């Protein structure tokens, strides 16, 4: 079988790690990035330091616009740069390849399905802690890296085949039968974790003790919105998961806020509120947190 051909649009913490592992496993990978990052990748390759996969550097192909069809195009930008990054993937260049975004949230799925044929768009979820420390330099700090794939619009057999090919490359991949449940499964926890840790500028341990009533209220509201979307989760189960987190754990939204970078507030909290509004579900605790955080956001992110 021919080697898997892939593109990674936005080779940061997630995309750099994923693309680096695929290159190391023998896949043909085109990294699609801004000029400066593409140049750094071409000149110095991609270096990964990983507690799970070890440290390695691979030479990589990098462009500023997808050069031609691939089997799969992973989209791994932050939500705040999604639209600009997609300009680098003209629908005509994609051929009949699958498009797999690994962003948190869910509203990006509609953006992708407006731009590319829906039968080629597959939702993805990644669980990892990985950061881009410089262009082409990736630090993977979690002992885990797992992927989930699911699509309401792509043929099941194409999703299954992609999962199989990624597993052949050594990745842990699960196929989920319900895209909405898959995306909200992550978002119900993540939105609460991100909003509360960032608003209070405190790690998980402080949030779950000093702001417990608010945490419980937020989890109730988010799970009510998820249920209205068709994804039913028990808020008590998510609270128990929250209680098991390492007390010092921070969210990436919190780290972005601390560093003065734009955050994914709108893609997480904003998206929950828009869904709440659509379904007529009250979400006052989430609305309060989103309003407070929006007021602190750097100006360029609205
Ligand atoms: N990192 C994690 O541990 C983690 C875990 C789970 C889920 N996620 C989710 O995964 C998504 C990606 O997060 P991340 O942490 O990997 O972000 P990141 O490290 O900031 O990487 C984003 C990448 O997108 C690139 N980019 C920005 N604008 C672009 C444009 N116009 N054209 C091409 N590339 C562009 C950036 O390029 P430059 O390098 O040139 O700045 C960067 O390499 C987010 O939705 C996040 O919530 C992240």
TrEMBL record:
Keywords: NADP, Oxidoreductase, Pantothenate biosynthesis
Record protein name field: 2-dehydropantoate 2-reductase
Pathway(s): Cofactor biosynthesis; (R)-pantothenate biosynthesis; (R)-pantoate from 3-methyl-2-oxobutanoate: step 2/2
Domain Ketopantoate reductase C-terminal: 183-296
Example GO biological process: pantothenate biosynthetic process
Segments forming domain Ketopantoate reductase N-terminal: 7-144
GO-annotated molecular function: 2-dehydropantoate 2-reductase activity
Any single GO CC term annotated in Swiss-Prot or TrEMBL for this entry: cytoplasm
NCBIfam families assigned to the protein according to its UniProt record, in alphabetical order: apbA_panE
EC number: 1.1.1.169
InterPro entries recorded: 6-PGluconate_DH-like_C_sf, 6PGD_dom2, ApbA, KPA_reductase, KPR-Related, KPR_N, NAD(P)-bd_dom_sf
Similarity comment text for this entry: Belongs to the ketopantoate reductase family.
Phylogenetic placement of the source organism: Bacteria, Bacillati, Actinomycetota, Actinomycetes, Streptosporangiales
Keyword Oxidoreductase attributed: yes
Superkingdom as given in the UniProt entry: Bacteria
Reactions catalysed, as given in the entry: (R)-pantoate + NADP(+) = 2-dehydropantoate + NADPH + H(+)
Organism (species): Thermopolyspora flexuosa
Enzyme class: oxidoreductase
Function noted in UniProt: Catalyzes the NADPH-dependent reduction of ketopantoate into pantoic acid.
């Amino acid at each position: 079988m021919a080697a898997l051909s892939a593109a990674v649009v936005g080779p940061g913490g997630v995309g750099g790690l994923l693309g680096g592992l695929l290159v190391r496993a023998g896949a043909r990978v085109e990294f699609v990035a801004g000029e400066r990052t593409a140049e750094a990748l071409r000149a110095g390759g991609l270096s990964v330091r990983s507690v799970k996969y070890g440290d390695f550097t691979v030479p990589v192909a990098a462009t500023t616009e997808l050069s031609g069809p691939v089997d799969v195009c992973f989209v791994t930008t932050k939500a705040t740069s999604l639209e600009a990054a997609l300009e680098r993937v003209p629908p005509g260049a994609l051929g009949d390849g699958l498009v797999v975004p690994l962003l948190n949230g869910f509203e990006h799925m509609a953006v992708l399905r407006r731009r590319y044929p829906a039968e080629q768009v597959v939702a993805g979820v990644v669980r990892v802690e990985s950061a881009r420390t410089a262009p082409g330099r990736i630090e993977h700090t979690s002992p885990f890296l797992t992927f989930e794939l699911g699509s309401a619009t792509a043929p099941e057999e194409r999703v299954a085949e992609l999962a199989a090919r990624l597993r052949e490359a050594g990745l842990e991949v699960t196929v989920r039968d319900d895209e909405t449940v898959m995306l909200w499964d992550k978002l119900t926890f993540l939105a609460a974790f991100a909003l509360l840790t960032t608003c209070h500028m405190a790690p998980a341990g402080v949030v779950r003790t000093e702001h417990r009533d608010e945490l419980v209220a937020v989890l109730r509201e988010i799970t009510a919105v998820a249920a209205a979307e068709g994804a039913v989760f028990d808020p008590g189960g998510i609270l128990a998961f929250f209680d098991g987190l390492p007390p010092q754990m921070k969210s990436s939204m919190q780290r972005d806020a601390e560093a003065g970078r734009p955050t994914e507030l709108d893609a997480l909290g904003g998206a929950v509120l828009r869904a709440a509004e659509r379904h007529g579900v009250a979400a006052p605790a989430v609305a309060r947190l989103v309003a407070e955080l929006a007021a602190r956001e750097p100006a360029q992110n609205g």
